[in-house]
Amino acid sequence: PSTLAFFGPYLQALVVAPTWTYMALMPVLPLLMYAPVLGGRRLAFFFAWGCLIGLSGELLGTTTGVPFGEYAYTQWLGAKIGGHVPYFIPPSWFAMSILSLDLARRTTSRRTSRIVLATVFMVLWDVSLDPAMNGAGAMFGDGAVVGGIDRFWSYPPADAFKFYYGMPLSNWLGWFAVALVIEAGFVTRPSCIF
Question: Which residue among 33, 59, 107, 110 has its CA within the 20 to 30 Å range from the CA of 78?
Fold first, then answer.
């Protein structure tokens, strides 16, 4: 039998449950990993800054289309802040931003280079993330809803210049802009060890 026929009845559980687990636990690892290094106050700043800037970018994006392009989250990531951004999303901005910055720190010692490289790492993460999350149910059937799942977020069909798995170029530019603000805020903090 085809993959769709085999997994179809279970696809919702196989996709949604692991995604929720991943999204819920994603910020936990960096919080545990960096607590001994950063201490409570600095870690609280990193968490608050990453979540605040990530949420601001997402709320702006889901209500105006700037900076990511027009998109909307579906119901699959649960309750939403302001009816637009799932609660899981801001902590994921923190988690991936601090991990990207740590990787950049291990790659270059120049402050500006660390900021830019960490920002590029964030965009590259989205390069792999977006096709899976934007086409979660479509992966088995040419855009069809499979197992009750369509997408975790979607771009409207009329959005201009979709060049990579249905993503507009503005998505990557938006990721670069939001991540740059987060990473610059992390690095330029006087007590930053990165």
Answer: 33
Each residue of 117-176: pLDDT tens digit? 999 999 999 998 887 777 644 544 444 444 455 577 777 766 556 677 778 888 999 999
179, 123 Cβ separation under 8 angstroms = yes
CA distances from 38 to 43, 45, 81, 136 (A): 6, 10, 28, 36
Predicted model pTM: 0.84
User: Which residue reads 């910055």 in tokens?
Assistant: 101
- φ and ψ at residue 86, rounded to 5 degrees: -60, 145
Query: Residues 115, 122: contact at Cβ < 8 Å?
Result: no
Cβ pair 135, 166 in contact under 8 A: yes
Residue (of 169, 144, 162, 12) closest to 75 by Cα position: 12
C-beta contacts of 155-164 below 8 A and 24+ residues apart: 155/69, 155/70, 155/71, 156/70, 156/71, 159/69, 159/70, 164/127, 164/130, 164/131
